[in-house]
Write a structure and sequence with these properties.
Radius of gyration of chain B: 23 Å
Structural class of chain B: alpha+beta
Order of helices and strands of chain B: EEEHEEEHHHHEHEHEEHHEEEEEEEEHEE
Distance between the termini of chain B: 27 Å
Number of helices of chain A: 11
Structural class of chain A: mainly alpha
Largest sheet of chain A: none
Radius of gyration of chain A: 20 Å
Oligomer: heterodimer
Number of strands of chain B: 20
Strand order of the largest sheet of chain B: 6-7-8-3-9-10
Shape of chain B: globular
Helix content of chain A: over 70%
Distance between the termini of chain A: 42 Å
Chain lengths: 225, 360
Protein backbone atom coordinates (compact mmCIF):
# COMPACT_ATOMS: atom_id res chain seq x y z
CA UNK A 1 0.00 0.00 0.00
CA UNK A 2 0.96 3.63 -0.33
CA UNK A 3 2.73 5.26 2.56
CA UNK A 4 1.71 8.55 4.13
CA UNK A 5 4.65 10.27 2.43
CA UNK A 6 3.50 9.10 -0.99
CA UNK A 7 -0.09 10.11 -0.28
CA UNK A 8 1.16 13.55 0.63
CA UNK A 9 2.85 13.86 -2.76
CA UNK A 10 -0.22 12.64 -4.62
CA UNK A 11 -2.53 14.96 -2.65
CA UNK A 12 -0.29 17.93 -3.38
CA UNK A 13 -0.16 17.06 -7.07
CA UNK A 14 -3.95 16.76 -7.35
CA UNK A 15 -4.39 20.02 -5.46
CA UNK A 16 -1.90 21.84 -7.70
CA UNK A 17 -3.44 20.43 -10.89
CA UNK A 18 -7.01 21.27 -9.83
CA UNK A 19 -5.98 24.78 -8.78
CA UNK A 20 -4.10 25.27 -12.06
CA UNK A 21 -7.21 24.34 -14.06
CA UNK A 22 -9.44 26.44 -11.82
CA UNK A 23 -7.40 29.61 -12.23
CA UNK A 24 -6.94 29.19 -15.97
CA UNK A 25 -10.52 28.19 -16.85
CA UNK A 26 -12.08 31.66 -17.18
CA UNK A 27 -9.10 33.26 -18.97
CA UNK A 28 -8.88 30.11 -21.11
CA UNK A 29 -12.52 30.36 -22.18
CA UNK A 30 -12.20 34.06 -22.99
CA UNK A 31 -8.97 33.53 -24.90
CA UNK A 32 -10.39 30.57 -26.82
CA UNK A 33 -13.46 32.59 -27.73
CA UNK A 34 -11.34 35.54 -28.79
CA UNK A 35 -9.08 33.40 -30.97
CA UNK A 36 -12.08 31.68 -32.58
CA UNK A 37 -14.13 34.78 -33.32
CA UNK A 38 -11.72 37.70 -33.52
CA UNK A 39 -10.86 38.79 -37.04
CA UNK A 40 -7.76 40.90 -36.71
CA UNK A 41 -4.19 40.81 -38.06
CA UNK A 42 -2.92 40.60 -34.47
CA UNK A 43 -4.88 37.41 -33.87
CA UNK A 44 -2.06 35.18 -35.19
CA UNK A 45 0.46 36.86 -32.88
CA UNK A 46 -1.78 36.41 -29.85
CA UNK A 47 -2.36 32.80 -30.77
CA UNK A 48 1.40 32.30 -31.15
CA UNK A 49 2.07 33.77 -27.70
CA UNK A 50 -0.62 31.60 -26.14
CA UNK A 51 0.80 28.47 -27.78
CA UNK A 52 4.39 29.30 -26.85
CA UNK A 53 4.55 27.24 -23.62
CA UNK A 54 3.56 24.18 -25.68
CA UNK A 55 6.71 24.36 -27.80
CA UNK A 56 9.20 26.04 -25.46
CA UNK A 57 11.25 23.74 -23.26
CA UNK A 58 9.40 23.80 -19.92
CA UNK A 59 12.62 24.73 -18.17
CA UNK A 60 12.78 27.87 -20.32
CA UNK A 61 9.15 28.67 -19.50
CA UNK A 62 9.98 28.24 -15.82
CA UNK A 63 12.97 30.53 -16.12
CA UNK A 64 10.88 33.20 -17.91
CA UNK A 65 8.27 32.94 -15.15
CA UNK A 66 11.00 33.28 -12.54
CA UNK A 67 12.10 36.48 -14.29
CA UNK A 68 8.65 38.06 -14.63
CA UNK A 69 7.71 37.19 -11.05
CA UNK A 70 11.09 38.39 -9.76
CA UNK A 71 11.09 40.56 -6.65
CA UNK A 72 11.71 43.80 -8.50
CA UNK A 73 9.54 43.08 -11.55
CA UNK A 74 6.00 44.49 -11.90
CA UNK A 75 4.30 41.08 -11.64
CA UNK A 76 6.48 40.17 -8.66
CA UNK A 77 5.54 43.41 -6.94
CA UNK A 78 1.86 42.85 -7.63
CA UNK A 79 2.22 39.38 -6.14
CA UNK A 80 3.98 40.79 -3.10
CA UNK A 81 1.30 43.44 -2.65
CA UNK A 82 -1.42 40.80 -2.81
CA UNK A 83 0.13 38.05 -0.69
CA UNK A 84 2.85 39.77 1.30
CA UNK A 85 5.35 37.16 0.09
CA UNK A 86 7.21 36.00 -2.96
CA UNK A 87 6.00 33.50 -5.48
CA UNK A 88 9.12 31.43 -6.02
CA UNK A 89 9.45 28.11 -4.16
CA UNK A 90 5.83 28.05 -2.92
CA UNK A 91 2.88 25.81 -3.73
CA UNK A 92 1.43 28.78 -5.59
CA UNK A 93 4.47 28.70 -7.87
CA UNK A 94 3.63 25.07 -8.74
CA UNK A 95 0.12 26.20 -9.62
CA UNK A 96 1.38 29.07 -11.78
CA UNK A 97 3.86 26.82 -13.60
CA UNK A 98 1.24 24.13 -14.19
CA UNK A 99 -1.38 26.65 -15.30
CA UNK A 100 0.93 28.36 -17.80
CA UNK A 101 2.15 25.10 -19.31
CA UNK A 102 -1.38 23.65 -19.53
CA UNK A 103 -2.92 26.86 -20.88
CA UNK A 104 -2.30 26.19 -24.62
CA UNK A 105 -4.03 22.81 -24.39
CA UNK A 106 -7.03 24.35 -22.66
CA UNK A 107 -7.27 27.27 -25.07
CA UNK A 108 -6.84 25.16 -28.19
CA UNK A 109 -9.63 22.75 -27.21
CA UNK A 110 -11.95 25.66 -26.43
CA UNK A 111 -10.97 27.56 -29.58
CA UNK A 112 -11.81 24.56 -31.78
CA UNK A 113 -15.07 24.03 -29.98
CA UNK A 114 -16.13 27.68 -30.27
CA UNK A 115 -15.11 27.76 -33.92
CA UNK A 116 -17.41 24.79 -34.51
CA UNK A 117 -20.42 26.75 -33.22
CA UNK A 118 -22.36 28.06 -36.23
CA UNK A 119 -21.90 31.85 -36.14
CA UNK A 120 -25.37 32.19 -37.67
CA UNK A 121 -26.80 30.90 -34.37
CA UNK A 122 -25.11 33.88 -32.72
CA UNK A 123 -26.50 36.22 -35.38
CA UNK A 124 -30.02 34.91 -34.77
CA UNK A 125 -29.54 35.35 -31.02
CA UNK A 126 -28.48 38.96 -31.60
CA UNK A 127 -31.44 39.64 -33.87
CA UNK A 128 -33.72 38.21 -31.18
CA UNK A 129 -32.54 40.91 -28.81
CA UNK A 130 -29.65 39.30 -26.96
CA UNK A 131 -26.46 41.33 -26.67
CA UNK A 132 -22.96 40.05 -27.33
CA UNK A 133 -22.32 38.85 -23.78
CA UNK A 134 -25.79 37.32 -23.37
CA UNK A 135 -25.35 35.51 -26.66
CA UNK A 136 -22.00 34.16 -25.51
CA UNK A 137 -23.41 32.91 -22.21
CA UNK A 138 -26.66 31.50 -23.63
CA UNK A 139 -25.55 30.14 -26.97
CA UNK A 140 -21.81 29.97 -27.60
CA UNK A 141 -20.66 28.73 -24.20
CA UNK A 142 -23.26 25.94 -23.76
CA UNK A 143 -22.57 24.71 -27.29
CA UNK A 144 -18.79 24.70 -26.69
CA UNK A 145 -19.09 22.95 -23.33
CA UNK A 146 -17.64 19.65 -24.59
CA UNK A 147 -14.51 21.49 -25.71
CA UNK A 148 -14.25 23.32 -22.41
CA UNK A 149 -14.52 20.05 -20.48
CA UNK A 150 -12.08 18.19 -22.73
CA UNK A 151 -9.64 21.11 -22.58
CA UNK A 152 -9.88 21.27 -18.80
CA UNK A 153 -9.18 17.54 -18.50
CA UNK A 154 -6.18 17.78 -20.82
CA UNK A 155 -4.83 20.77 -18.92
CA UNK A 156 -5.36 18.86 -15.67
CA UNK A 157 -3.41 15.87 -17.00
CA UNK A 158 -0.64 18.14 -18.27
CA UNK A 159 -0.50 19.87 -14.87
CA UNK A 160 -0.07 16.51 -13.11
CA UNK A 161 2.96 15.79 -15.27
CA UNK A 162 4.53 19.22 -15.11
CA UNK A 163 8.22 19.09 -14.14
CA UNK A 164 10.54 21.46 -15.99
CA UNK A 165 8.90 24.79 -15.24
CA UNK A 166 8.02 23.64 -11.73
CA UNK A 167 11.54 22.67 -10.74
CA UNK A 168 12.84 26.08 -11.87
CA UNK A 169 10.06 28.25 -10.45
CA UNK A 170 9.01 26.21 -7.42
CA UNK A 171 12.00 24.07 -6.61
CA UNK A 172 11.76 20.87 -4.63
CA UNK A 173 10.36 21.56 -1.19
CA UNK A 174 8.86 18.48 0.49
CA UNK A 175 5.20 18.98 1.29
CA UNK A 176 5.07 22.28 -0.53
CA UNK A 177 6.37 21.95 -4.07
CA UNK A 178 7.30 18.29 -4.35
CA UNK A 179 4.67 17.09 -6.81
CA UNK A 180 4.66 13.58 -8.32
CA UNK A 181 7.22 14.21 -11.11
CA UNK A 182 9.55 16.11 -8.78
CA UNK A 183 9.22 13.37 -6.16
CA UNK A 184 9.96 10.66 -8.73
CA UNK A 185 13.05 12.53 -9.87
CA UNK A 186 14.17 12.96 -6.27
CA UNK A 187 13.55 9.31 -5.36
CA UNK A 188 15.47 8.10 -8.37
CA UNK A 189 18.48 10.02 -7.11
CA UNK A 190 18.29 8.44 -3.65
CA UNK A 191 19.63 4.89 -3.07
CA UNK A 192 16.72 2.51 -2.41
CA UNK A 193 14.13 5.00 -3.68
CA UNK A 194 13.13 2.89 -6.67
CA UNK A 195 10.20 1.10 -5.05
CA UNK A 196 8.59 4.32 -3.85
CA UNK A 197 9.27 5.88 -7.26
CA UNK A 198 7.61 2.91 -8.95
CA UNK A 199 4.47 3.43 -6.88
CA UNK A 200 4.35 7.08 -7.84
CA UNK A 201 4.89 6.16 -11.47
CA UNK A 202 1.96 3.75 -11.24
CA UNK A 203 -0.25 6.45 -9.69
CA UNK A 204 0.86 8.84 -12.44
CA UNK A 205 -0.03 6.43 -15.18
CA UNK A 206 -3.45 5.68 -13.65
CA UNK A 207 -4.32 9.37 -13.21
CA UNK A 208 -3.12 10.40 -16.66
CA UNK A 209 -4.89 7.52 -18.33
CA UNK A 210 -8.14 8.22 -16.45
CA UNK A 211 -7.99 11.87 -17.47
CA UNK A 212 -7.33 11.01 -21.11
CA UNK A 213 -10.14 8.44 -21.23
CA UNK A 214 -12.55 10.99 -19.77
CA UNK A 215 -11.43 13.55 -22.33
CA UNK A 216 -11.88 11.05 -25.20
CA UNK A 217 -15.31 10.16 -23.94
CA UNK A 218 -16.38 13.77 -23.90
CA UNK A 219 -15.06 14.41 -27.38
CA UNK A 220 -16.86 11.31 -28.72
CA UNK A 221 -20.10 12.52 -27.16
CA UNK A 222 -19.64 15.79 -28.91
CA UNK A 223 -19.06 14.05 -32.24
CA UNK A 224 -22.23 12.06 -31.84
CA UNK A 225 -24.54 14.91 -30.98
CA UNK B 1 -45.25 49.73 -41.55
CA UNK B 2 -42.85 52.24 -42.95
CA UNK B 3 -39.40 51.07 -43.95
CA UNK B 4 -36.78 53.30 -45.50
CA UNK B 5 -33.55 51.65 -46.48
CA UNK B 6 -30.57 52.90 -48.37
CA UNK B 7 -27.64 50.50 -48.57
CA UNK B 8 -24.38 50.81 -50.42
CA UNK B 9 -21.93 47.99 -50.03
CA UNK B 10 -19.09 46.68 -52.17
CA UNK B 11 -18.03 43.06 -52.31
CA UNK B 12 -15.44 41.44 -54.50
CA UNK B 13 -18.00 40.47 -57.10
CA UNK B 14 -21.01 42.63 -56.28
CA UNK B 15 -21.83 46.24 -55.62
CA UNK B 16 -25.08 46.53 -53.75
CA UNK B 17 -26.68 49.89 -54.21
CA UNK B 18 -30.31 50.29 -53.29
CA UNK B 19 -32.65 52.91 -51.99
CA UNK B 20 -36.17 51.83 -51.13
CA UNK B 21 -39.08 53.22 -49.16
CA UNK B 22 -42.20 51.17 -48.58
CA UNK B 23 -45.36 51.16 -46.54
CA UNK B 24 -45.57 47.38 -46.67
CA UNK B 25 -47.08 45.81 -44.64
CA UNK B 26 -45.18 43.09 -46.44
CA UNK B 27 -42.27 44.09 -48.65
CA UNK B 28 -41.22 41.35 -51.03
CA UNK B 29 -37.57 41.23 -52.05
CA UNK B 30 -37.23 39.21 -55.18
CA UNK B 31 -34.10 38.14 -56.99
CA UNK B 32 -31.80 35.31 -57.99
CA UNK B 33 -29.08 34.10 -55.65
CA UNK B 34 -26.18 36.52 -55.60
CA UNK B 35 -28.39 39.52 -56.34
CA UNK B 36 -27.81 41.01 -52.88
CA UNK B 37 -31.03 39.97 -51.15
CA UNK B 38 -29.40 38.56 -48.03
CA UNK B 39 -26.96 41.45 -47.78
CA UNK B 40 -29.91 43.84 -47.81
CA UNK B 41 -31.65 41.92 -45.02
CA UNK B 42 -28.46 41.75 -42.96
CA UNK B 43 -27.97 45.49 -43.31
CA UNK B 44 -31.52 46.10 -42.11
CA UNK B 45 -30.97 43.67 -39.22
CA UNK B 46 -27.71 45.39 -38.29
CA UNK B 47 -25.67 42.22 -38.77
CA UNK B 48 -23.66 43.89 -41.50
CA UNK B 49 -22.43 47.44 -41.52
CA UNK B 50 -22.51 48.86 -45.04
CA UNK B 51 -20.08 51.47 -46.32
CA UNK B 52 -22.92 53.90 -46.68
CA UNK B 53 -26.58 53.74 -45.94
CA UNK B 54 -29.52 54.63 -43.78
CA UNK B 55 -32.11 52.32 -42.25
CA UNK B 56 -35.29 53.57 -40.60
CA UNK B 57 -38.34 51.62 -39.46
CA UNK B 58 -41.53 53.49 -38.51
CA UNK B 59 -39.55 56.70 -38.60
CA UNK B 60 -37.04 55.38 -36.04
CA UNK B 61 -33.50 55.67 -37.28
CA UNK B 62 -31.75 52.34 -36.79
CA UNK B 63 -28.53 53.14 -38.51
CA UNK B 64 -26.76 55.66 -40.63
CA UNK B 65 -23.38 55.35 -42.29
CA UNK B 66 -20.98 57.01 -42.62
CA UNK B 67 -21.34 58.85 -39.33
CA UNK B 68 -24.60 58.75 -37.44
CA UNK B 69 -25.53 55.88 -35.20
CA UNK B 70 -25.46 52.24 -36.12
CA UNK B 71 -27.63 50.33 -33.68
CA UNK B 72 -26.53 46.85 -32.74
CA UNK B 73 -28.80 44.03 -33.97
CA UNK B 74 -30.19 43.39 -30.49
CA UNK B 75 -31.37 46.99 -30.19
CA UNK B 76 -33.30 47.11 -33.45
CA UNK B 77 -36.44 45.22 -32.45
CA UNK B 78 -36.36 43.16 -35.64
CA UNK B 79 -36.33 39.39 -35.70
CA UNK B 80 -34.66 37.35 -38.40
CA UNK B 81 -35.85 34.01 -39.78
CA UNK B 82 -33.63 32.39 -42.39
CA UNK B 83 -33.81 29.48 -44.78
CA UNK B 84 -32.13 27.30 -42.19
CA UNK B 85 -34.31 27.48 -39.03
CA UNK B 86 -31.15 27.75 -36.87
CA UNK B 87 -32.81 26.47 -33.71
CA UNK B 88 -30.60 26.36 -30.64
CA UNK B 89 -29.73 22.66 -30.39
CA UNK B 90 -29.11 22.73 -26.64
CA UNK B 91 -32.59 23.99 -25.86
CA UNK B 92 -36.00 22.37 -26.10
CA UNK B 93 -38.70 23.79 -28.35
CA UNK B 94 -40.00 25.80 -25.42
CA UNK B 95 -36.45 26.89 -24.58
CA UNK B 96 -36.09 28.19 -28.13
CA UNK B 97 -39.44 29.97 -28.05
CA UNK B 98 -38.65 31.86 -24.85
CA UNK B 99 -35.11 32.77 -25.91
CA UNK B 100 -35.72 36.46 -26.64
CA UNK B 101 -35.92 38.88 -23.69
CA UNK B 102 -39.55 39.04 -22.57
CA UNK B 103 -40.57 36.07 -24.71
CA UNK B 104 -41.39 33.95 -21.66
CA UNK B 105 -43.89 36.49 -20.38
CA UNK B 106 -45.29 36.97 -23.86
CA UNK B 107 -45.78 33.23 -24.24
CA UNK B 108 -47.88 33.15 -21.08
CA UNK B 109 -50.15 35.93 -22.30
CA UNK B 110 -52.97 35.89 -24.85
CA UNK B 111 -50.57 37.20 -27.49
CA UNK B 112 -48.30 34.20 -27.02
CA UNK B 113 -51.21 31.74 -27.06
CA UNK B 114 -52.30 33.12 -30.42
CA UNK B 115 -48.83 32.69 -31.86
CA UNK B 116 -48.70 29.11 -30.56
CA UNK B 117 -52.16 28.53 -31.97
CA UNK B 118 -51.51 29.97 -35.43
CA UNK B 119 -48.21 28.10 -35.80
CA UNK B 120 -49.62 24.87 -34.28
CA UNK B 121 -46.79 24.74 -31.74
CA UNK B 122 -48.69 23.34 -28.74
CA UNK B 123 -47.85 19.67 -29.40
CA UNK B 124 -44.18 20.51 -29.95
CA UNK B 125 -43.49 22.55 -26.83
CA UNK B 126 -41.75 19.88 -24.79
CA UNK B 127 -39.94 18.18 -27.66
CA UNK B 128 -36.22 18.29 -28.30
CA UNK B 129 -35.36 20.20 -31.43
CA UNK B 130 -33.26 17.45 -33.00
CA UNK B 131 -36.33 15.26 -33.40
CA UNK B 132 -38.34 17.82 -35.35
CA UNK B 133 -39.10 17.65 -39.06
CA UNK B 134 -38.09 20.47 -41.42
CA UNK B 135 -41.52 22.07 -41.43
CA UNK B 136 -41.80 21.83 -37.64
CA UNK B 137 -38.40 23.46 -37.24
CA UNK B 138 -39.39 26.37 -39.41
CA UNK B 139 -42.62 26.80 -37.44
CA UNK B 140 -40.61 26.91 -34.20
CA UNK B 141 -38.20 29.43 -35.75
CA UNK B 142 -41.14 31.63 -36.73
CA UNK B 143 -42.65 31.33 -33.26
CA UNK B 144 -39.33 32.20 -31.66
CA UNK B 145 -39.06 35.31 -33.83
CA UNK B 146 -42.67 36.39 -33.24
CA UNK B 147 -42.36 35.93 -29.47
CA UNK B 148 -39.53 38.46 -29.53
CA UNK B 149 -42.30 40.98 -30.30
CA UNK B 150 -40.53 42.44 -33.35
CA UNK B 151 -41.58 45.69 -35.00
CA UNK B 152 -40.71 44.03 -38.27
CA UNK B 153 -40.09 40.41 -39.15
CA UNK B 154 -37.20 39.73 -41.52
CA UNK B 155 -37.73 36.56 -43.53
CA UNK B 156 -34.78 35.46 -45.65
CA UNK B 157 -36.09 32.71 -47.95
CA UNK B 158 -37.93 30.99 -45.10
CA UNK B 159 -39.41 28.32 -47.34
CA UNK B 160 -36.66 27.55 -49.80
CA UNK B 161 -35.24 24.61 -47.85
CA UNK B 162 -38.66 22.93 -47.72
CA UNK B 163 -40.39 20.79 -50.33
CA UNK B 164 -43.34 22.20 -52.27
CA UNK B 165 -46.03 21.00 -49.88
CA UNK B 166 -44.24 22.17 -46.74
CA UNK B 167 -43.38 25.54 -48.20
CA UNK B 168 -47.04 26.02 -49.09
CA UNK B 169 -47.89 25.19 -45.50
CA UNK B 170 -45.33 27.65 -44.09
CA UNK B 171 -46.46 30.31 -46.55
CA UNK B 172 -50.05 29.77 -45.44
CA UNK B 173 -48.92 30.27 -41.84
CA UNK B 174 -47.13 33.45 -42.81
CA UNK B 175 -50.32 34.72 -44.42
CA UNK B 176 -52.16 34.06 -41.15
CA UNK B 177 -49.36 35.81 -39.26
CA UNK B 178 -49.77 38.77 -41.60
CA UNK B 179 -53.55 38.88 -41.36
CA UNK B 180 -54.29 37.73 -37.81
CA UNK B 181 -51.24 38.91 -35.94
CA UNK B 182 -50.64 41.95 -38.15
CA UNK B 183 -46.85 41.71 -38.06
CA UNK B 184 -45.15 43.61 -40.89
CA UNK B 185 -42.50 41.72 -42.81
CA UNK B 186 -39.66 41.91 -45.25
CA UNK B 187 -39.98 38.72 -47.23
CA UNK B 188 -37.05 37.59 -49.36
CA UNK B 189 -37.74 34.97 -51.99
CA UNK B 190 -36.81 33.77 -55.43
CA UNK B 191 -40.22 32.19 -55.98
CA UNK B 192 -42.76 34.33 -57.82
CA UNK B 193 -45.88 32.57 -56.51
CA UNK B 194 -44.84 33.31 -52.92
CA UNK B 195 -44.29 36.93 -53.79
CA UNK B 196 -47.73 37.18 -55.39
CA UNK B 197 -49.32 35.45 -52.43
CA UNK B 198 -47.92 37.50 -49.58
CA UNK B 199 -46.25 40.74 -50.64
CA UNK B 200 -48.07 44.06 -50.92
CA UNK B 201 -45.11 45.86 -52.37
CA UNK B 202 -41.98 44.41 -53.88
CA UNK B 203 -38.55 45.19 -55.19
CA UNK B 204 -36.68 43.11 -57.71
CA UNK B 205 -32.92 42.95 -57.20
CA UNK B 206 -30.56 42.17 -59.99
CA UNK B 207 -26.78 42.32 -59.51
CA UNK B 208 -27.18 44.53 -56.45
CA UNK B 209 -29.61 47.01 -57.98
CA UNK B 210 -33.34 47.55 -57.74
CA UNK B 211 -34.58 46.95 -61.29
CA UNK B 212 -38.27 47.16 -60.45
CA UNK B 213 -40.40 48.36 -57.54
CA UNK B 214 -44.17 48.15 -57.25
CA UNK B 215 -47.09 45.81 -56.68
CA UNK B 216 -45.86 42.24 -57.23
CA UNK B 217 -48.22 41.40 -60.07
CA UNK B 218 -47.34 44.61 -61.91
CA UNK B 219 -43.63 44.19 -61.39
CA UNK B 220 -43.54 40.55 -62.40
CA UNK B 221 -45.38 40.95 -65.68
CA UNK B 222 -43.92 44.27 -66.81
CA UNK B 223 -42.91 43.60 -70.43
CA UNK B 224 -39.68 45.54 -70.07
CA UNK B 225 -38.54 43.19 -67.38
CA UNK B 226 -37.57 40.30 -69.57
CA UNK B 227 -34.88 39.37 -67.07
CA UNK B 228 -37.52 39.17 -64.39
CA UNK B 229 -39.52 36.72 -66.45
CA UNK B 230 -36.42 34.58 -66.67
CA UNK B 231 -35.84 34.92 -62.95
CA UNK B 232 -39.37 33.88 -62.28
CA UNK B 233 -38.95 30.86 -64.49
CA UNK B 234 -42.52 31.23 -65.70
CA UNK B 235 -42.45 33.40 -68.78
CA UNK B 236 -46.09 34.43 -68.81
CA UNK B 237 -47.60 35.74 -65.62
CA UNK B 238 -51.22 36.76 -65.94
CA UNK B 239 -53.69 38.08 -63.39
CA UNK B 240 -57.08 37.43 -64.95
CA UNK B 241 -60.68 37.54 -63.69
CA UNK B 242 -62.76 34.38 -63.36
CA UNK B 243 -65.56 34.47 -65.93
CA UNK B 244 -67.19 31.10 -65.57
CA UNK B 245 -66.63 27.55 -64.38
CA UNK B 246 -67.17 24.21 -66.02
CA UNK B 247 -66.62 22.01 -62.98
CA UNK B 248 -67.49 18.80 -64.80
CA UNK B 249 -65.26 19.71 -67.69
CA UNK B 250 -62.50 20.51 -65.19
CA UNK B 251 -62.09 24.01 -66.55
CA UNK B 252 -62.23 27.53 -65.18
CA UNK B 253 -62.44 30.23 -67.87
CA UNK B 254 -60.54 33.44 -67.28
CA UNK B 255 -61.22 36.63 -69.20
CA UNK B 256 -58.45 37.87 -71.50
CA UNK B 257 -60.53 40.86 -72.70
CA UNK B 258 -62.04 41.33 -76.14
CA UNK B 259 -64.40 38.41 -75.55
CA UNK B 260 -61.49 35.94 -75.37
CA UNK B 261 -61.03 33.38 -72.60
CA UNK B 262 -58.13 31.43 -71.22
CA UNK B 263 -59.16 27.97 -70.06
CA UNK B 264 -57.31 27.00 -66.87
CA UNK B 265 -57.61 23.89 -64.70
CA UNK B 266 -60.70 24.09 -62.49
CA UNK B 267 -60.17 26.25 -59.42
CA UNK B 268 -62.89 27.16 -56.97
CA UNK B 269 -63.26 30.95 -56.93
CA UNK B 270 -66.24 33.28 -57.29
CA UNK B 271 -66.76 34.85 -60.71
CA UNK B 272 -65.02 38.19 -60.98
CA UNK B 273 -62.15 37.38 -58.61
CA UNK B 274 -58.67 37.63 -60.04
CA UNK B 275 -56.50 34.55 -60.29
CA UNK B 276 -52.76 34.51 -60.98
CA UNK B 277 -51.72 32.01 -63.59
CA UNK B 278 -48.43 31.25 -65.30
CA UNK B 279 -47.67 29.68 -68.68
CA UNK B 280 -44.20 28.61 -69.81
CA UNK B 281 -43.13 30.08 -73.14
CA UNK B 282 -42.27 26.56 -74.32
CA UNK B 283 -45.83 25.37 -73.72
CA UNK B 284 -47.44 27.55 -76.39
CA UNK B 285 -47.72 26.50 -80.05
CA UNK B 286 -48.07 28.93 -82.97
CA UNK B 287 -50.18 28.32 -86.11
CA UNK B 288 -50.54 30.45 -89.21
CA UNK B 289 -54.19 29.42 -89.64
CA UNK B 290 -56.82 28.57 -87.13
CA UNK B 291 -56.30 24.90 -86.29
CA UNK B 292 -59.30 22.61 -85.79
CA UNK B 293 -59.96 19.27 -84.14
CA UNK B 294 -57.61 19.95 -81.22
CA UNK B 295 -57.88 18.69 -77.65
CA UNK B 296 -56.31 21.93 -76.42
CA UNK B 297 -58.99 24.26 -75.11
CA UNK B 298 -57.17 27.47 -75.86
CA UNK B 299 -56.95 28.56 -79.48
CA UNK B 300 -56.30 32.27 -79.38
CA UNK B 301 -55.85 34.80 -82.19
CA UNK B 302 -53.02 37.28 -81.77
CA UNK B 303 -50.69 39.68 -83.49
CA UNK B 304 -46.90 39.49 -83.21
CA UNK B 305 -45.57 42.44 -81.25
CA UNK B 306 -41.86 41.59 -81.22
CA UNK B 307 -39.47 38.86 -82.36
CA UNK B 308 -36.25 38.61 -80.38
CA UNK B 309 -33.51 36.10 -81.14
CA UNK B 310 -32.07 34.98 -77.79
CA UNK B 311 -29.21 32.56 -78.31
CA UNK B 312 -30.51 29.66 -80.35
CA UNK B 313 -34.09 30.55 -79.63
CA UNK B 314 -36.53 33.16 -80.76
CA UNK B 315 -38.76 34.81 -78.22
CA UNK B 316 -42.06 35.95 -79.69
CA UNK B 317 -44.24 38.46 -77.88
CA UNK B 318 -47.83 38.09 -79.02
CA UNK B 319 -50.63 40.56 -78.35
CA UNK B 320 -53.72 38.55 -77.43
CA UNK B 321 -56.62 40.86 -76.61
CA UNK B 322 -55.37 42.96 -73.65
CA UNK B 323 -52.53 40.61 -72.70
CA UNK B 324 -49.10 39.76 -74.02
CA UNK B 325 -48.04 36.12 -74.35
CA UNK B 326 -44.38 35.16 -74.65
CA UNK B 327 -43.65 32.15 -76.80
CA UNK B 328 -40.30 30.44 -77.33
CA UNK B 329 -39.64 28.80 -80.70
CA UNK B 330 -36.59 27.75 -82.71
CA UNK B 331 -35.11 30.03 -85.38
CA UNK B 332 -35.98 27.27 -87.89
CA UNK B 333 -39.67 27.50 -87.00
CA UNK B 334 -39.60 31.28 -87.20
CA UNK B 335 -38.09 31.12 -90.70
CA UNK B 336 -40.39 28.41 -91.99
CA UNK B 337 -43.55 30.14 -90.75
CA UNK B 338 -42.21 33.44 -92.12
CA UNK B 339 -43.01 35.10 -88.81
CA UNK B 340 -42.72 38.87 -88.75
CA UNK B 341 -43.77 41.71 -86.49
CA UNK B 342 -47.42 42.59 -87.10
CA UNK B 343 -48.34 39.19 -88.53
CA UNK B 344 -51.53 37.56 -87.26
CA UNK B 345 -51.16 34.03 -85.91
CA UNK B 346 -52.97 31.58 -83.64
CA UNK B 347 -51.62 30.52 -80.28
CA UNK B 348 -52.58 27.16 -78.83
CA UNK B 349 -52.25 26.37 -75.12
CA UNK B 350 -53.34 23.19 -73.35
CA UNK B 351 -55.45 23.79 -70.28
CA UNK B 352 -52.96 21.80 -68.21
CA UNK B 353 -50.17 24.15 -69.30
CA UNK B 354 -51.90 27.00 -67.50
CA UNK B 355 -50.50 26.84 -63.97
CA UNK B 356 -52.20 28.40 -61.01
CA UNK B 357 -49.84 30.51 -58.94
CA UNK B 358 -50.28 31.54 -55.37
CA UNK B 359 -52.32 29.69 -52.83
CA UNK B 360 -55.76 28.14 -52.85
Amino acid sequence: MLSEAIWEVVRLSLLVALAAVAVSLVPGILTGWLLARWRHPLRALVQGLVMLPLVLPPVVTGYLLLLVFGRSRPLGRVWHALTGGHLAYTTAACVVAAAVVGFPLLVEAIRLSVAAVDPRLEQVARSLGRGRWDTFVRVTLPLSRPGVVAGAVLAFARALGEFGATIVLAGNVAGETRTIPVAVYTLLNVPGGESAAAKLVAVSVVLALAALLLSFRWSVRRGES
Amino acid sequence: MRLEARVHQIFRDLTLDLDVATNGPVLGVFGASGSGKTTFVHAVAGLLEPRAGRIAVEGRLLGERPGGRWLRPERRGLALVTQDPLLFPHRSVRGNLVFAPGAGERLAREEGRRIVDVLRLAPLLDRRVDGLSGGERQRVALGRALLAGPRLLLLDEPTSALDAELSRDVLGLLLRVKEELAVPMVFVTHRAPELLAIADDCIVLQAGRVVAHGAPVEVLRRPSALGIAQLVGVDNLLRLPVVEHDAEGGVTRLGLGGGLFLAAPYREAPAGTDLDVGVYADDILLFLHRPTGLSARNVLPGRIRTLDPVGREVLVALDVADSVLRIRITPAAATELELAVGREVWAVVKTAAVHHLGLG
